[in-house]
Amino acid sequence: MEIPVFDIKGLPGQIQPDLPKLRNLYLTKYQNSSIPIVIDNGSYTCRAGWGGLPDPSLIFRNLVSSQKSSQNPDVLVGSEIPDSDLYKLSIKSPFEKGVLQHFHTQEQVFDYIFWVLGIQDTQINNPLLITETPCSPNYSRDLLLELVFEAYNIPSINLGIDAIFSLSKNKGPNSSAMVLSFGHQASHILPCINGQFLPHYAKRINIGGIHCTQSLLKFLQTRHFYAKNLILWPLAQEIIHNHCYTALDYLSELESLKLGKQRKIQLPWVMQQKPSDEELKKKQQQKKQQGQKLKEIAMKKSAEKRKIAINELEDLEYFIKKVKKNSSEFQEGLIARGIDSYEELKRKINCLKTRLNLEVNDSERYNLLNTPDNELTAEMVKQKRIQKIQKAAKDARDLKKAKTQEAQEKIEKIKQSDPEGYLKDLHKQRSEILQRIDDRKKLKIKLQNRNSRSSQRRLRVIADLSTEKTSDDNFGSKDQDWNIYREICNDNQDDEEDKILLLDIDTQISSIDKNHITTLGDTWRIPTAEDYQILLEVDRIRPAEIIFQPSIIGLDQAGLCQTLDQVFRLFPYEQAKKLESCVFVTGASAFFPGFIERIEDEVMKMRPCGNKIVVEKAWDLELDAWRGASEFCLTKEFEETSVGREEYKEFGGYVFCRKNRHFASNLYYETPERGDIPVKRSKNR
Amino acid sequence: MPKVKKDKHKQYGRETPFKNTSFSLKTCSTKPIKTFKQIIQAENYDNYPASVPNYLSIEAAPSTIPSRKYSDISGHVSKYTEPKTNLRYSNALEYQIIRALTQEHIDTYLSLRKAVNVIR
Q: What is the pTM of this model?
């Protein structure tokens, strides 16, 4: 069955805002009004715009590029960052794990928002509505307020939770629902009764969209270890958006994926062109020329050396012939040439002659061999021994040469007369070597286990050797004794010898039989498109499964359904019935096909039988939070619960604790001092 | 060379006349940038009364049911674990693949589910 292959098309890039249009809008409509600016601060994208509008004017990635090159001395925010730079290390986000942490970056994002919206006066007259995460730390809120009031002098600000705004947009302001909000870095379960968010029953799971993409990326990179540089974040994002879905029943889906539904992704690759004949010829010619040059140089050198040697030889021969042996001239001549004695002179002449490939008289070389010992001096006896050894070595060498020549001639004969038989013989040898290598591997594995028979045998040998009671230890006098080392020693060199033999035989076989596949050695062939394809099997359903089973990526938290079950049980039965009749899913990470059906299935499994269970999705998972906030900011409740500049100056960062809460606000509580709760002291002190 | 006057209201390449240029978190604020861990620690969540929800209290608890084991190589359900490397596998073919892996590769597989033991 063929597996369909998909190409990489790339996701759509960021939308660039229409600057003159926005400036115009500001000048005409919003400059002197007090219509608030609504900023939905998400950790993936930030959505900003004027309150009351149906759509946000700005949607951009909430990232700041701090890399300042000579061309671009400025800081780039959001859609100004080119797509290729989006995943570099120099990119910063103001969020960490869903909490505002890096306020310098947040400041630059605010600069960008206000500038793009067209504000160029010295004073911003419009209030703000910013979204935050449920139960965000007081420190983040503190710094946010400081930034807003002291750096930008904004008249008033209000805060709210984005998921509840989305609920109010879709279901109206007074609805009860169990809101499941799937964000970029965390997911929340937020129960709402009669429109009011109940923070005491909220729960957070530390898995969001970023974990799905990250885990898919890592899985693919680990499986295709060689292609780590080809598999990057944009590819993982594209796979998630186009090829992943949520399984209704994970285990049965795993089985059915094996049978069908697999997909292949074609990575971009470049065909390696086979070098044309001309290029090959050129290369060969270049090689030849280089070889010839080297040869010339070598020949010159050897010619020079040869000249010197010939001159020396002539000189010595002349010297030996003309000058009398026992004269003082002779001695002087010897000393002048740095030679000790007459014998050494002769030896030197023979040496030079052999070097120049002239014939050397064997009888002269081994002249002492035939004379018996008693006729020679002590020195000459030594020399005789040396000559004996030399002759024996030479004889052995000649014998070996003759033998190898004979063997080669034999092989040639067999090759010509019976090629098939020869090939069979080679294959036999090859299989024997492979068998030996295999046996050695198995033995190695067995030896690692202390209780196996082979390691017990080995220990027995060592123990025998050590406890052998012999008065005179003549271990090692025979050659066979040293073979014991081969049995005891763990790292054997025989493996390498066998590998060399195997290579040799392989080359011989492939010279005859072109279709032979070698085991060792390179099997390079021209790469095809199939080499650059990734198979997606389990990866199609695994990213969406992480929120249900966080143990897949090693996170020790309960999955979505377990926590949902816990939250449902916190409510009395009547209220729980209200909540389960409307389970509301929002947040951009819930886009997987099949996600809603899966949640409905899971909720039905955990609630009492027969209850009405309806799971709904927000009309627009990504933008409905902004739209809900935009609707909210025109109401009276917004004005009543906002915090103004004077109030902030009077009360500081905890000003929100004194204000009334609206339906989408967090529960505000002042950070207690350390030591607020008294430490119990014992009586005897 | 004459000094080029920097536009007072042009911070970070953008004209921001609405901004109080004497205040900038980078130059003016006495508070250093805190990491996420430092923020959570400074919040003093231990001393919150039990009735008030805070960032840590709404975090979901660890799972009460044992996790299902999936193979590290393919992702299918795995019944077996390789004792030497602690990798999970589901059939004999995967076992052969595991035997042929280098130590670096094994560590990468284990780090996917945070099972790598850094101290050996």
A: 0.72
